[in-house]
Write a structure and sequence with these properties.
The complex is a heterodimer. By secondary structure, chain A is mainly alpha-helical. Chain A contains twelve helices and two strands, in the order αααααααββααααα. In chain A, strand 1 and strand 2 (175-176) form a beta hairpin. In chain A, helix 3 (54-71) packs across helix 4 (80-99) and helix 11 (222-229) crosses helix 12 (233-251). Chain B is α+β, with helices and mostly antiparallel strands. The mean pLDDT of chain B is 88. Classes of the chains: A mainly alpha, B alpha+beta.
Chain lengths: 253, 124
């Protein structure tokens, strides 16, 4: 009874593939998919907790399964499962390679990065300590810089969370990365700028100071200033230019 | 060093002649447009200063150009009778413009002359 049941099921699947091969009917494909969905589930579970959400991997695995159904040729006489497994695995690996990186890293560096990690483990067990960059470089037959770059690139797979907690063993309060992140204090540059303006304005004579103040602090036009001071607009323009030049020289001193 | 001496009536209608002479000479010496404009403004301001502060207009201006390979030295002298007091220099708009736009300047109140220097920009 059991034997018969199993047989009839496999025959049924066999027939489904034959029908799909001929008709390419999506309905049939869906039926096959439902029957083998468990494969995608099993395989994707193996790859969870590796930096990509399980749901995403599962979806990729399902796509792999569909590709496998599409490409499978029942007439060659192999089991579908043995054909589908590498196809699904391949899709998942491809996804990890192409989409998994938080920052796009050149393929070459990706490959070096993988090798460097491997060498790191090999050397660590043969030397019984953490190998130096130099040792890894020698082993990998590349330069120190390349190894360092590869290590750095390897971290790019994940972006570090700002909410990540650091354990501060002394008290209860955990500190997140966000708490200790430095930010540029804008007030410093404001103080510096103010100090610079105060100092360098002293180098200008009364008229120059007057024009710069009116022009850049009161936002007046050159012609307005010219009218106010009863001089020509061209003179205002020339003096403005000269004064800015003087300030620039002060700035780069 | 070449010298050009210009003696010209102290009348506003001759201002353009002074300005044109100055720009022609500075152009001849290879000053750039900005520098030529500066020179013209400074010259005009010196004349304005004299016109405002020495009311006597019967005699001439004497403009003295000294042309060096790398700089121009200009002296404007008012040949009219009269005295210039030190007070007229304080907070004077013309003087500030001259100070701002020339490299160095000098005044000689007794001789009623103002001299300024303008160097050519270095090639950098």
């Amino acid at each position: 009874m059991n034997e018969f049941g199993k047989n009839s099921k496999s025959i049924k699947n066999h027939d489904l593939f034959l029908i799909y091969h001929e008709t390419k009917d999506i309905e049939i494909r869906n039926q096959i998919f439902e029957k083998y969905k468990y494969m995608a589930e099993i395989i994707s579970r193996k790859y969870s907790n590796r930096g990509i959400e399980h749901d995403d991997i599962y979806q990729i695995a399902c796509m792999g399964l569909i590709f496998a159904i599409e490409r499978f040729d029942i007439t060659k006489g192999f089991e579908f499962t043995s054909f589908a497994t590498p196809t699904i695995l391949g899709e998942i690996k491809k996804y990890f390679r192409d989409k998994g990186w938080a920052v796009k890293v050149p393929r070459k560096i990706q490959e070096i990065s993988r090798k460097v990690n491997e060498y790191n483990n090999i050397l660590a067990s043969s030397l019984h300590r953490t190998p130096t960059i130099r040792e890894i470089a020698e082993y990998a037959n590349s330069t120190d810089e390349e190894v360092l770059e590869a290590f750095e690139a390897g971290k790019m797979f994940n972006s570090q969370s700002l909410d990540e907690k650091f354990d501060m063993s002394r008290d209860e309060n955990d500190i997140s990365l966000l708490d200790v992140m430095g930010a540029e204090d804008k007030h410093f540059s404001r103080i510096e700028n103010k100090d610079f303006i105060n100092k360098s304005m002293g180098k200008l004579n009364g008229l120059e100071k007057d024009i710069i103040t009116k022009r850049f602090f009161e936002n007046k036009t050159q012609s307005d200033i010219a009218k106010e001071l009863n001089i020509s607009q061209m003179t205002v323009s020339r003096i403005e230019k000269k004064s800015l030049e003087k300030l620039r020289i002060e700035y780069y001193k | 060093m070449d010298k050009v001496l210009l003696r010209i009536p102290k009348k506003s209608e001759y201002m353009s002649t002074i300005r044109l002479t100055s720009s022609a000479l500075s152009n001849l010496e290879g000053f750039n447009i900005d520098e030529i404009e500066d020179i013209k403004v400074v010259i005009s301001e010196i004349c304005t200063f004299f016109i405002n502060n020495l009311k006597n207009n019967s005699d001439d201006f004497q403009v003295n150009y000294e042309i060096f390979p790398d700089k121009l030295v200009v002296t404007v002298k008012d040949l009219n009778e009269g005295r210039l007091s030190g007070d007229c220099l304080k907070d004077n708009m013309s003087i500030m413009i001259i100070e701002s736009l020339s490299d160095t300047y000098n005044y000689d109140l007794n001789n009623k002359a103002i001299t300024f220097e303008k160097s050519k920009a270095g090639i950098d």
